[in-house]
Design brief:
Layout: H1 2-20, E1 47-52, E2 57-62, E3 66-69, E4 72-77, E5 87-97, H2 103-114, E6 121-127, E7 130-136, E8 145-151, E9 154-161, H3 174-185, E10 187-188
Antiparallel strand pairs: 1-2, 2-10, 3-4, 4-5, 5-9, 6-7, 7-8, 8-9
Length: about 190
């Protein structure tokens, strides 16, 4: 308790010093503030740009993660192949022709293929103005969250795993943070 009070006092002291010095305090831009409507988002110190022109997308991801493998962003990457996991958690981005299918149709087909008896949930979101469907609980090696989006007749499938959300909304897991950053900054190139 004393440590918490001490930290609060230090923070207040620092804020007062900054105000007295006439310094202008600016906030770090959130991912949604750095996205121009007609081009890829701009990287900042905390966020790197991943641009895949061939697959037609670009996005920002936290700088302390790895984006070295095409379509794979890894949390705490394992430096050498030594197992079946590239790191603690990751997102795999796959792109294929949508062939006229909607994100909802693809999500419904994935849910139907899983069969019954699973606790699968589905919700809709917008990504860069395109309808997308978020599906939690599709059976797999690890718990996962899969996002299906269609833009320019391309199907984008983003699989985040292992998906174990935090029970405390004020303390999201690193994978939840990665998910939020990618969803907020994903841009479909035309």
């Amino acid at each position: 308790m004393l440590r918490k009070q001490y930290l609060i006092l230090v923070l207040i002291f620092m804020l007062v010093q900054t105000a007295c010095a006439g310094a202008v305090v600016t906030s770090v831009p959130t991912p949604t503030e750095v996205i121009p409507t007609d081009e890829c988002p701009t990287a900042i110190a905390e966020l790197k740009l991943l641009k895949n022109t061939e697959a037609g997308y670009c996005l920002l991801y936290p700088a302390n993660y790895s984006g070295d493998i095409q379509g794979l962003i890894v949390i705490n990457p394992v430096p050498e192949p030594g197992g079946d996991m590239p790191g603690d958690a990751w997102v795999l981005i796959q792109v294929e022709a949508a062939n006229g299918r909607t994100a909802a149709q693809v999500a419904d087909a994935a849910i139907a293929a899983a069969g019954t008896g699973f606790n699968i949930t589905k919700s809709e979101i917008l990504i860069d103005g395109a309808q997308a469907v978020v599906v939690d609980g599709i059976p797999g090696q690890d718990s996962n969250r899969t996002v299906f989006a269609v833009s320019n007749d391309r199907l984008y499938t983003l699989t985040f795993q292992p998906w174990y959300p935090s029970t405390d909304a004020s303390q999201p897991t690193p994978l939840e943070g990665l998910y939020a950053t990618i969803i907020d900054t994903l841009h479909f190139m035309h």
